[in-house]
Amino acid sequence: MGIVEEINQAHRELLDGERKVVTLRRRYEAEVEDVWDACTKPDRLSRWFLPVTGDLRQGGAYQLEGNAGGEILRCEPPRLLKVSWLYGEDPGFSEVEVLLSSQDGGTLFELRHTAEVPPEMWSDYGPGAVGVGWDLAFLGLGLHLSGAPRIDENTFHQTDEGRRFITAACQAWGRAHETAGGPPDRIAATVANTIAFYAPEEEPA
């Protein structure tokens, strides 16, 4: 399966309330225990996502290198992980929940990110601001579980395949936004803004 086709393997939903909830759901051809280990063992997590440090148990704190940190709110191996997801000086409410279940000999992976989003950021970017980041993480996990080489996060957006993947992910979140009742006239702008953020055009030499 090509990288761009990975987009169609995930189902995306948005609950557009006072707190925004983005949900991604897809099946991986791997056992639940293997997927759980890939998401919770530091040595494996760093191979497809980011290095993590901290007291990695329920009630402990964690920090992803250069990204979010927070508290491990629930940890029920190998099915459920819930953490606060805090980034920046004044992040507000933000939590991520991962649910794993067996499906057709593989694993159904569901991720829900619930957050309070500043109105101006939501108006400019919509759900794609966080959703595309999770799409890239889902891609990384899928490659890791299949034994395929890791993408280079620093240059992926500069490749034709990377730009197609990011554009397709942004458009998919635009459709999820429309399904959730978002204004069509604004959705086109948020999709364009999100593409420009994740895959900016190269400056001419």
From TrEMBL:
Residues 30-135 form the Activator of Hsp90 ATPase homologue 1/2-like C-terminal domain. InterPro entries: ASHA1/2-like_C (IPR013538), START-like_dom_sf (IPR023393). CDD domains: SRPBCC_CalC_Aha1-like_6. Belongs to the AHA1 family. This is Activator of HSP90 ATPase. It comes from Planobispora siamensis.
